Amino acid sequence: MTDRLLVLVRHGQSEWNLSNRFTGSSDVDLTGLGVEQARHAGRTLRARGIRFDVGFTSALKRAWRSLDLILDEMDQSSIPVIRSPALDERDYGDLTGLDKNDARATWGEAQVETWRRSYDVPPPGGESLKDTAARVLALYDRDILPRVLRGECVVVAGHEHSLRALVMVLERLNTTQIAARELATGIPVIYRLGADAAVAERLDPAG
After folding, report:
1. CA–CA separation, 101 vs 107, rounded Å?
2. What is the pLDDT of residue 206?
3. Is pTM beyond 0.90 here?
4. What DSSP designation does 5 have?
5. Span 157-174, mean pLDDT?
6. What is the pLDDT of residues 14-55, one digit of tens each?
7. Which residues are catalytic?
């Protein structure tokens, strides 16, 4: 179960997920449910028999703490873990900290959904998915993919949009398809890559 495996995990529920606020690059912590979601992800991966060689996480607490909890459940806390702001959530700019319903009341449902789900339209003062992808994919190409292609088993703990940027490339989705793709908190996505770096198989985390 360790040949060219790449596992992506969105952090567990955060405090601002719970309060329906745009979180973005704000460094908020996990809720109690978020802690349990991360631990459950670890138990699921352990039951799969997966042994990681290295972990990557964003520099934001909700992601690196989730990875710590996952690895603790797997008895793999001793593996090297690299924290990188390249994996941080997209910057929501002027929307950061706002209740999502309040934002819709201010700018309108259609505009807010365009900012949230489009590929290349950023919110005021913030990043689009395209902007986020530029930094995420630079790290992936330079540091993550070479390890996977060497046969290492790699886990990446990140955020909805930083991981969507990777999913778009891995699954070869277009800008319309990625707009409809969501990643649930605390649910691992497991890929087996071929020697050509393309996804050979997507595995069910539950086995």
Report:
1. 10
2. 79
3. yes
4. E
5. 97
6. 999 999 999 999 999 999 999 999 999 999 999 999 999 999
7. 11, 89
Q: What is the mean pLDDT of the chain?
A: 96
State mean pLDDT over 144-170: 97
Q: How many angstroms separate the most distant Cα atoms in the chain?
A: 50
For residues 30 and 55, the answer to whether their CB atoms sit within 8 Å is no
| Separation of alpha carbons 103 and 76, rounded Å | 41
Is the Cα dihedral 159, 164, 165, 166 positive or negative?
positive
Mutual orientation of helices 160-170 and 129-139 as an angle, nearest 10°? Answer: 70
CA-nearest of 42, 29, 47 to 79 is 42
N-terminal to C-terminal alpha carbon distance within the chain: 11
Structure-token pair, residue 77: 């806390």
Tokens for 115?
């900012």
